[in-house]
């Protein structure tokens, strides 16, 4: 069971985990041990609330297919258990990141004092540049 928030949890039967051989340089057990984890999660057929499903489907992420299947390949660690935990944590982060509401930016105007400060600094800069000029006699 994967706890997403206080009210939303995913059951273990909704997440498909399969062990595969990981890529990369070989070692002693390269052709024998399947330490990488391939996680698949079907968004439309899950028990997630409709809001979660809509926001996940709207995400522009390469891990989410057009049919709504999230595919995560975890092969960062050497053991299957660590890769399984890593894949589940990455799924959790993906679902939680979809629910973050981005605050809209309100346009503001610069204050009168800030405009005056800017103009004053411009005149001071201009004066220092004129003092650097070559003096003509």
TrEMBL record:
InterPro entries: Pep_chain_release_fac_I, Pep_chain_release_fac_I_sf. GO terms for biological process: rescue of stalled ribosome. GO terms for molecular function: peptidyl-tRNA hydrolase activity; ribosome binding; translation release factor activity. Residues 21-37 form the Prokaryotic-type class I peptide chain release factors domain. Keywords: Hydrolase. NCBIfam families: PRK09256.1 (NF006718). Belongs to the prokaryotic/mitochondrial release factor family. This is Peptidyl-tRNA hydrolase domain protein. The lineage of its organism: Bacteria, Pseudomonadati, Pseudomonadota, Gammaproteobacteria, Vibrionales.
């Amino acid at each position: 069971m994967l706890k997403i928030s206080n009210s939303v949890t995913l059951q273990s039967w909704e997440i498909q985990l399969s062990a595969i051989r990981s890529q990369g340089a070989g070692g002693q057990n390269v052709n024998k041990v399947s330490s990488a984890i391939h996680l698949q999660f079907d968004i439309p057929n899950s028990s997630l609330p409709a809001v979660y499903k809509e926001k996940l489907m709207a995400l522009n992420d390469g891990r989410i297919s057009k049919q709504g299947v999230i595919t995560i390949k975890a092969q960062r660690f050497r053991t299957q258990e660590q890769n399984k935990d890593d894949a589940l944590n990455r799924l959790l982060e993906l679902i939680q990141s979809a629910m973050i509401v981005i605050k809209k930016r309100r346009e503001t105007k610069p204050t009168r004092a800030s405009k005056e400060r800017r103009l004053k600094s411009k005149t001071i800069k201009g004066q220092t540049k004129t003092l650097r000029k070559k003096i003509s006699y």
